[in-house]
Amino acid sequence: MKRIKIFDTTLRDGEQSPGCSMNLSEKIEMARQLEKLGVDVIEAGFAIASPMDHKSVKAIAAAVSEPVVASLARCTKGDIDAAWDAVKEAKKPRIHVFLATSDIHMEYKLQMTREQVLQSISEMVAYAASLCGDIEFSAEDASRSDPAFLARCYENAIAAGATTLNVPDTVGYSTPQEMYDLICYLKEHVKGIDGVDISVHCHNDLGMAVANSLECIRAGATQVECTVNGIGERAGNASLEEVAMALRTRRDFYQAETGINTRQIYRSSKLLSNITGVPIPPSKAIVGANAFAHESGIHQHGVLANAQTYEIMNSADVGVPQNTMVLGKHSGKHALRDKLLSMGYELTDEEMEKVFARFKTLADKKKNITGSDIEALVLHRRNAFLASCELMSHVVNTGHGVPNTSYIQMRRGDTILEDVAIGSGPLDASFKAINHMLGLENIRLGSYSLNAVTDGEDAIGEAVVKLETPDGESYTGTGLSTDIIESSIRAYVNGINKMMEAANH
Ligand code: KIV
Ligand code: ZN
């Protein structure tokens, strides 16, 4: 079995995608989950991009110990110094240097000749290697570069001290066969390539990122760059969960394995979706709500007779909560803790108290509390910890042909605030009341969605709002309740809290 390294770039390439930005504490929480997931490398950010990016790479470097922590850098001293400064306290630091090598990028973006690019790679990779023992070099747009020139670029990188060569399909243009051939070509033509890791970084513009990555593994790549839920620039990057489960399910074919603890996959996917507010499409492979659902009678009959008739994976292996053992209002803290442990959640006593309080409130409204409900409560505990404004009560009057009014009462520190507003609907009225009482009338509701966490009439509704400030920043808020108006108001308040927290930094 070949051991394939998983390089996770959720916090760099993923975070670059629209709607996926995260604040510092969210990035740290996600990085800790990636460590539990068992990724080999966390690309924590692009340190030079902003002081906040630098700060978060540094914080992630301090927060995890098992994975390598990488920061991206262009081929300049300033970028490399910033990257090194941000990762140097990590137990296993890496500097990831990149430069474009395709003719179109060199001519129009870099305005550099081939010779200048070769020289820059030699100089800057050597400079990075003088600071750090673990250097990755990426030839941006490698798949559209002249293969012979690309091979020279990689040779220079190896000679200057690179320990990993990354081959990106930056614009998601290549086909699986072309990626396979490119890796074979490089293995044959790059001197010294046997002594370094070969990495691939495929974008999903034509929906082939995972297939391309898998073909590269067959051709000899030893590292795959990917993101949770496949988030990333434009159509995203190769999805981590799809690559990991394809290798596991078809180990007979790929003869390769990863260090991923697959039972942490579902949790990682949910956490990311909960943090960013970007929902997981129901038909998404591995982690979508329908990924293990059998709707047709023929399929259901087959699965009941023998699960393998229609199931190639076991949902428990991916960590999907099994809704078999349910809890209710008579369940105590021990039962809840046991259930959480069986689902892989280890909470501190303080966290446990908060989750238990929310569990009891939910149990008053919902008879059977399933694994999915409990998971939602745990994911939402972050909201409780962040809260600086807390919803105390609300009264909403709505109907057809009558004005929609909402009265909201909130606590902010020791102060009780209240307001009432009229709106085009119950949520509009509630959001207006909140904006008015906090003096935030220029906040815009960018998007809103509501999903049921489980089935049934007493299902928990999870609301996700995106708030936009006049200076173009956006903040995602999530809220949970069996009452959809309450979950929406909670989501709005959560978004406002995040916005205020960011303003205080
Ligand atoms: O897509 C790409 O080429 C990249 C590089 C910086 C690795 O993200
Ligand atoms: Zn990329």
Gist?
With 505 residues, the chain is of the alpha/beta class.
Notable characteristics:
binds zinc ion, 20 helices, 20% strand, alpha/beta, three-stranded antiparallel β-sheet, 505 residues, binds 3-methyl-2-oxobutanoic acid
Question: How does this structure look, described?
Answer:
- The longest helix is centred in the C-terminal third of the chain and has 20 residues, at 484-503.
- The mean pLDDT is 92.
- This protein has 505 residues and is of the alpha/beta class.
- The protein is 44% helix and 20% strand.
- 3-methyl-2-oxobutanoic acid is lined by residues 13, 72, 98, 138, 140, 166, 168, 170, 201, 203.
- Zinc ion (ZN) binds at residues 13, 168, 170, 201, 203, 233.
Task: Please render the helix and strand layout as text.
Layout: E1 2-3, E2 5-8, H1 10-14, H2 24-37, E3 41-45, H3 51-63, E4 68-74, H4 77-87, E5 93-100, H5 103-110, H6 114-131, E6 135-140, H7 147-160, E7 164-169, H8 176-189, E8 197-202, H9 209-219, E9 223-226, H10 240-249, H11 251-254, E10 256-257, H12 265-276, H13 297-305, H14 315-318, H15 333-342, H16 349-365, H17 371-379, H18 381-386, E11 389-397, E12 404-412, E13 415-423, H19 426-438, E14 444-452, E15 461-468, E16 474-481, H20 484-503
Parallel strand pairs: 1-10, 2-3, 2-9, 3-4, 4-5, 5-6, 6-7, 7-8, 8-9
Antiparallel strand pairs: 11-12, 12-13, 14-15, 15-16
The structure holds 3-methyl-2-oxobutanoic acid and zinc ion (ZN).
